[in-house]
Specification:
Blueprint lengths: L1 H10 L20 E4 L2 E4 L3 E2 L9 E4 L8 E5 L7 E7 L4 E11 L5 E10 L2 E11 L8 E6 L9 E7 L7 E11 L12 E4 L6 E6 L6 E7 L5 E8 L4 E4 L6 E9 L2 E9 L4
């Protein structure tokens, strides 16, 4: 009877096609495959063990849809999930949402690696630290280095915490491309000057549109530093003398449309 039920469950799993270029497979973690004694996220490799408790499990408390991906340290080793897929364009940013339930003094890692002809050419990295209480999901934006213009494949690696029962969840991963691929429909656009910058930054939206827009400056983990509402095609100046040097993300949103750009702050003299 158990065999019959298992076969019925297996045949109920929807058949998925391999990832299309520039698309993260199973990015919303809605589909899980039975593997060994448990389930794994479709098209993702994990270090789940048939002997020990699973480290990578579905999280019913998701950002959207039915499930997210939870990395939980079950006492055997650090949780790990990774996927690889083809590219036609070079990504600019890895976006997503995370729910931080890591223990104090613990951390999780997110890597994105871009390849061309089998060689690692560009990458992005973020560290999420524990002990910071955040209710629900928080946006994640990781810029990808731009050493080369072409890319043919990509790898994303998620690593959870080192301490027992420390956990973090991820959902709704996506890529943004400078070509507009991965952006929302009818993309807006803007110019930033200077970039890199030291003390101030000027933003000018330049698409043929009208109406109010929201300009948001965030760090690489998606935490909002400052934001401003402006009229489209109006120049907006930010005084950022006290902002620490580093890499940031500047986004312009109009309705359901969004454009994002990586900017760099350096220490002024």
């Amino acid at each position: 009877m158990k065999k019959i039920l298992l076969l019925a469950w297996l045949f109920s799993i929807p058949l998925l096609s391999p990832a299309q270029p520039d698309t993260i497979p199973n990015a919303g973690f809605e589909t899980w495959w039975f593997s060994g004694w448990g389930v794994n996220p479709a098209f993702w490799a994990t270090n789940n063990s048939q002997i020990m408790a699973a480290n990578v499990i579905p999280d019913s408390s998701s950002h959207s849809g039915t499930t997210a991906l939870m990395l939980i340290n079950s006492g055997n080793f650090r949780p790990h999930a990774s996927t690889g897929f083809p590219l036609l364009h070079h990504p600019l940013v890895l976006n997503g949402f995370f729910k931080n339930q890591l223990h104090m003094n613990d951390s999780a890692l997110i890597h994105i690696r871009v390849f061309s002809n089998g060689n690692l050419t560009d990458s992005g990295f973020a560290l999420v630290t524990g002990g910071i209480t955040i209710s629900g999901y928080y946006p994640l934006s990781i810029p990808v280095s731009q050493n080369v213009a072409t890319a043919d494949s990509c790898e994303i690696v998620l690593e959870g915490g080192n301490t027992y029962l420390s956990q973090i969840s991820f959902d709704d991963l996506s890529l943004t491309f400078s070509t507009g691929i991965g952006e929302l429909p009818a993309p807006v656009s803007f110019e930033v000057y200077p970039n890199p910058f030291s003390d101030w930054l000027q933003v000018t939206s330049n698409a043929d549109a009208a109406g109010e827009v929201r300009i948001r400056l965030s760090d690489v983990l998606g935490r909002v530093i400052t934001e401003r509402t402006s009229i489209y095609k109006e120049e907006t100046r930010f005084e950022l003398t006290n902002l620490p040097a580093g890499i940031y993300m500047l986004s312009l949103e109009k309705g359901n449309n969004r454009a994002t750009r990586k900017i760099i702050k350096y220490e002024g003299r």
